[in-house]
Specification:
Helix content: 40-55%
CATH topology of the largest domain: Zincin-like
CATH class of the largest domain: Alpha Beta
Structural class: mainly alpha
Strand order of the largest sheet: 1-3-2
Number of helices: 11
Shape: globular
Distance between the termini: 38 Å
Order of helices and strands: HHHHEEEHHHHEEEHEEHH
Number of strands: 8
Number of domains: 3
Strand content: 5-15%
Bound molecules: zinc ion
CATH architecture of the largest domain: 2-Layer Sandwich
Length: about 325
């Protein structure tokens, strides 16, 4: 049985984003005390529930240990940028939305001629606009993305119909789907969606061993060939999801290179995976420079180095034609 404490991974990601940019001494102080408070809060919650932090689900556990052993040296002190810094995010949960629970309850009674379960609706800060419905015994738990909290009633009603149809495995009326979809396509919602993706996206180390390619071997080989074996090896991991736009990224705060799982495929030539890895390795070599207090990573020198890759042209060509 797993116990989860909502918000740990989100807080951890928020810390990463905050430390990617320089901050003032004062902001640094606030950030460090916020981390300490939240670590304490996590430990208190664990104790209340009689679990130890090492028994938390994998993502929360990784996040907890990172926060617990947070290295203050990672924080760059300097001119702050316009990016937001960390604020206490582990606030008490949102709790049940009684009104929306009642809406679901009423709709259930209207739609299905059978014993009514108890329905509990709450909100969760998912990293995308999604909602889930699950039944445990006689209780149905519905979690709506927190960005839907202020959605108009007809939209909530449409979503309720969609979720209840899913729960009961019946076909959902198209009209309700249309109402919900149109709402998601409003500019206000598209913007909210981008924002939560940006600030809540998760970064967790899974495995460097793929089905086809092993990132450890690739790193070692490239390190020897291009860097005299001098680059310090970071954590290497395939991404959790197949991403088609961003094929790799280097996170210096986390000391991690993430390569898109979409490249771990037999149709992808080895030199393409090599090339993406090489690019991320160059980020380690070149580091981040700040230009007008903005992050600047693909400098002229960076790009010149990139062209030293043996099959640079072939790899670029392949990516151009096969961008998945
Ligand atoms: Zn890059």
């Amino acid at each position: 049985m797993g116990y989860r404490i909502g918000g740990i991974v989100r807080f951890y990601n928020h810390i990463h984003q905050s430390i990617a940019h320089p901050m003032t001494e004062e902001q640094k102080g606030i950030l460090i005390s916020t981390i300490k408070q939240n670590v304490q809060k996590i430990e208190e919650l664990c104790e209340q529930c009689n679990v130890r932090p090492q028994n938390l689900p994998a993502r929360s556990r990784v996040a907890y240990y990172y926060l617990k052993n947070f290295d203050e040296a990672q924080i760059k002190v300097g001119t702050p940028s316009e990016y937001p810094t960390a604020e206490p995010l582990l606030k008490p949960g949102f709790g049940e939305d009684k009104e929306t629970s009642q809406l679901f309850q009423n709709l259930y009674a209207e739609m299905f001629n059978k014993t009514q379960p108890q329905i509990v609706v709450d909100y969760y800060p998912y990293s995308s606009v999604k909602s889930t419905i699950r039944s445990y015994g006689n209780v149905v738990y519905v979690r709506l993305s927190d960005v839907l909290k202020d959605a108009p009633n007809n939209v909530k009603k449409a979503l309720a119909v969609i979720l209840l149809c899913k729960l009961e495995r019946v076909k959902c009326p198209l009209e309700q789907k249309r109402i919900y979809r149109n709402y998601l396509n409003t500019s206000q919602m598209l913007e909210a969606h981008n924002k939560i993706r940006k600030y809540r996206g998760e970064k967790i180390i899974l495995s460097s061993k793929g089905h086809i390619y092993n990132l450890e071997n690739i790193f070692e080989r490239l390190n020897k060939h291009y860097f005299n074996g001098e680059l310090k090896k970071p954590h290497l991991t395939w991404s959790e999801q197949k991403t088609h736009y961003r094929l790799g990224h280097e996170d210096s705060a986390m000391n991690t290179i993430v390569i898109s799982k979409s490249l771990d495929h037999r149709n992808v030539p080895f030199y393409v995976v090599d090339y993406i890895m090489y690019h991320e390795m160059l980020h380690i070599k070149h580091g981040t420079t700040y230009k007008d207090s903005r992050r600047h990573v693909h400098t002229k020198e960076f790009k010149a180095d990139e062209r030293k890759f043996n099959r640079w042209r072939t790899a670029e060509e392949w990516l151009k034609h096969n961008r998945m």
